[in-house]
Each structure stands twice: as C-alpha cells, then as structure tokens.
Amino acid sequence: MRISIKLKTSAFLAALLLLTVIVLSLLVLQGIQKNQRVQVEQFLAQQAATANTYLRQSLTAQLNKVPETYLASKGAEFGKQLEMISGQAIELYDADGKAIYKNKSGALSAGIGQTLTYALQQKTAYLVEGDSLYYLSPLKVANEQVGVVQFYYDLAANDVFYHEIRQLFVYIGAGTFLLSFILAYFYFNALSGSIIKLNRTVNRIREGSYETAGVKRRDEIGELGEGIRMMSERIRQTIRDKDDEREKLKLAVDKLSQLDQQQKEFIGNVTHEFKTPLTSIKAYLDLMDMYPDDEELLQTAKTNIAGDTQRLYEMVEKVLRLSALEKYDFEFSKEKVDVRQTTESVLGSLQGKMEKFGLRLETNLSEASADADRDSLTIVLMNLLDNAIKYNKAKGSISVSCAERAGQVVIEIADTGIGIPQAVVHKIFEPFYTVDKNRSRENGGAGLGLALAKKYAEMQGGSIALLRSDAEGTTFSVAYPAWSGGESS
User: Fold this and answer.
1) d(Cα 85, Cα 72) in Å, to the nearest integer?
2) How far apart are CA 446 and CA 433, in angstroms?
3) Which of 236, 265, 315, 399 would suit a FRET pair with 478, their CA atoms being 20 to 30 Å apart?
C-alpha cells in the first residue's frame, strides 16, 4: 500500500515536534528540581552554622563552660532561642542521641533514627519523608561533637511551585506544538504539493503527453521542475528530428548525471569534515607500527597527527561550548575591561597568521572600558578576527576600531574579503553555516565561530551585527555596555 508523502511528512513532523517539546520540558523541569534542592540544602547548612555559632556564644556567657553540662541543663532554653533565631522548627540531641529538646512529641521514625546515627558521627545528613525534610547537623565545640541539631523544613511550597511550573509547561508545550505544527504543516504541505505535481508531470510524460508546466519555486525542486519541463521539450524535438535531438538528449542525460555527481560530492563533503583528519591519523599510526625505527617518518607522523588532532579538537570544542551555552545559564565574571588593551592582545596573538596571508592591519582604538567578562570578550574578538583572516583576499587588509557611543562600547571589524551574498545574510549566525565551504575546509573552519560569538555577546547584554557586506568585504559590529563605575556580577 502506497502512503502519500503528505501523510508521511505530517506524521514525522508531529513526532519530531512532540519529542522536542517533551525532551526540553523534562530537562528544564529536572533543572528546576535540582535548583530547589540546592537552595534548600544551602539554606539549612547556613542554619546549622548559625546554631553552632549561637552555641559557642551561649557557652561564653556561662560560668560553667562545659558543653555537655550546658546542653543537659539549658538545652530546652537553648532550643527555644535557636528556634526564634532561625525561624525553623528544631530538635536537639546530646552526644548519645538522647532528645534534649523536641519540638514534636512522639517516638523517632526508623528513617530519622538511622539519620541521627549517621549525624552522631560528625556528619551532616538529611531525610525526606513525604513533604517533610529533616536536616541533622552536628553541634561541635572546639572540633568535638557535643550533640545534634535537627531542622524541620516543609517541602509542600516547593512541590506546589514545581507542579505549577509543570502544568505551565504542559500548556505552553501544547500551544507551541500546535502552533509549530500548523506553521510547518503549511510549509511542508506546499513542498509536498510541488513533489506531487512533479510526479504527475512525470506520469504524463510517461504516457506520451509532453505538455508540462514548471514548478514556481526558487530552490532545488523548482530547478527539478524546470529540468523536467526542458526535458519534455527536448523529447518533443526528438520526435521531430531524431538525429538532431539525439545529441541534445545526450546533453540532457549528461546534465542529470552531473547533478547526481554533485549531490554525491555534497554528501561526501559533509562527512569529510571529520573523516579526513581521522583517516590521516589512522594512516600515520599504521605506518608508525610498520616502521617504528624510521625517525623521519615518526617526526612527520607526529607533526601531521598533531595538526589533524588540533583541527578535530577545535571543532569538537566549539560544538560543546555552543551546546553548553544553550542548555545552561552561566554566571560570567563581569568587570571593568579595558577594550583597547584586550583588542590589542587578541591582535597580537593573530599577528603571525595575518603575516602568513600578507594582510595589512589598520587600527583606530580609543580608550574605552566595557562592563563584560574578559575571557568571553576575547573569544568573541578572536572568532571575528579569525574569520576576517580566513575569508580575506590575498594582500588584503583588516581594519579594527573601538569607541564609546551612547553608553556602549562599539568595536567594528572590517575586512576586504569575499563578502557575504545578501540572500544568505540571515543565515550567517546559524551553527555549521559557511558561505564558502571549500575555503572553510582549507582553513579548518566548521561554521561555528559566528554562532559562538553571537551567543557569548548576547548572554552578557551585548550584541553583534553585520553592518556591511559587498564585493569590497564585510564589516561586523560588536557592542557591550560601557563601564558605569558600579558593581558587576
């Protein structure tokens, strides 16, 4: 039974969107749970530290400074005062595990009893029973344990918050799924409709009807439709003049073969990014096993393996770094950064590479200080300048300037390179997208630099934009908030 491509596309699209929404929701919910747990643990650890501090202060004010005697005689009073200070329900136990002050009546549960035994060994432990969390921490004086303090924490509010967030994710996920599916459905439906139209056209040609209409699309399917239309015209011409059309038909077949070869080369180039350096490494390792005493071969192998390994490392490192930035919220160490000094430092590290390609450097760097993370700013500049070198023309130039404008520090990087076609300008910040794939491969690029730079800039309140792109080259602009003299986090 033949299944329509529209049905296949719709089913696959629905499954993919649903899987994406579910996976993202689960990951975010797990992050929220982990964050709640960490906050509760930090809060209770602070309360335990407060209890130990208060115990030492209370002993200092007593004539009898023996901790055991104090807890035995003043434990109830100490517990009440500690509850008032901490705002938490507590229980106190002496070094033998005997209850000194209990906020709740009743015998200990098996779980709390085991947790208390663990806490009596100068270790902090906690137990979760239902909506309740029991946090037990040693009470110590001069590194000697004199008892255990137990804090009670109600997890009901955290659970309510988590369930509300989960419900919100259900609503948002369902809405996002429906909206995305509807939009994508219309797009893929149009795509499938063009394929079905092409299929009907092919069937008519098979039946001997050569009147065809092209598909009005500006992509490969449109090209295919136009190719089918042209092929039909050529077949009609063949019927009128067999000898003359035979040569034209041969040209059409050659063209289709060339398109097929180009498609195969494209697929091969995609896998070549990783396969080529790995193949080279494996070949040199085999040669080193075959000729272990050949010093010249060993040196050559080491050099080439190091180069290929560095290329693989850089590609993998950029992929991992970009993935981490998208999944997690990092806290940057923002500070007063001397933009001029940082830019000069990056230019200095790339000086050798610019000289290798015979590039001329022009700078106009004004004194300016940005509120940014120094390492992240360095990464942004390094990626932009590296692209300016890779995609520049021989004996070209690079111009770098920085200045403070309207509360922002603006850095502009211009080159005399190959430029970026206007039709693909909106794609340049997408991961793995490169304008000139052959040149990227020669220089070790994988299309990750601009995506990584944009992510780093935006996560610190900055921005990155393409100001100019034509036959004379490209100009990128990076803007960061100017240093205001206040505190940064």
Assistant:
1) 21
2) 8
3) 315
Tell me, yes or no, if the pTM score tops 0.70.
no
Residues across the chain: 489
Query: How far, in Å, CA of 65 to CA of 263, rounded?
Result: 86
Burial category of 83 from C-beta neighbours within 10 Å (exposed 0-12, middle 13-18, buried 19 and up) = middle
Residue 86 contacts residue 50 (beta carbons within 8 Å)? yes
DSSP string, 454-479: HHHHHHTT-EEEEEEEETTEEEEEEE
Taking the C-alpha atoms of residue 288 and residue 229, their distance in angstroms, rounded to an integer, is 57
Which among 383, 364, 356, 353 has a CA at the least distance from the CA of 452? 383
**Token pair for residue 312?**
């693989």
Q: Which stretches of the chain score pLDDT less than 50?
A: 104-106, 259, 262-263, 265-270, 272, 326-330, 439-441, 444, 489
- Helix/strand/coil percentages in the chain, nearest 5: 60, 20, 20
Helix H or strand E segment including 173 = helix 156-206
Q: For residue 483, what is the DSSP state? A: P
Structure tokens at 478: 């990076």
Question: Do the beta carbons of residue 2 and residue 173 sit within 8 Å?
Answer: no
Residue 27 tokens, joined: 């990951």
User: Which one-letter DSSP state was computed for residue 213?
Assistant: -
Q: Which residues pair with 317 in a beta bridge?
A: none
Q: Per the structure block, which two tokens stand in for 167?
A: 């419900």
Q: Where are the beta strands (DSSP E) in 7-143?
A: 89-94, 99-102, 125-129, 132-141
What's the distance, CA 311 to chain centroid? 20
- In a 13 Å sphere around the CA of 126, the CA atoms on its Cβ side amount to 19
Counting DSSP H helices and E strands in the chain, the numbers are: 12, 12
The C-alpha atoms of residue 418 and residue 436 are separated, in whole angstroms, by: 9
Q: What is the full DSSP assignment across 393-430?
A: PTT-EEEEEEEEETTEEEEEEEE-S----GGGGGGTTS
DSSP category for residue 482: B
In angstroms, the CA 371 to CA 456 distance is 14
CA angle, 79 then 83 then 87, to 5°: 170
Q: What is the C-alpha radius of gyration for the chain, rounded to an integer number of angstroms?
A: 35
* Partner residues linked to 338 by β-bridges: 369
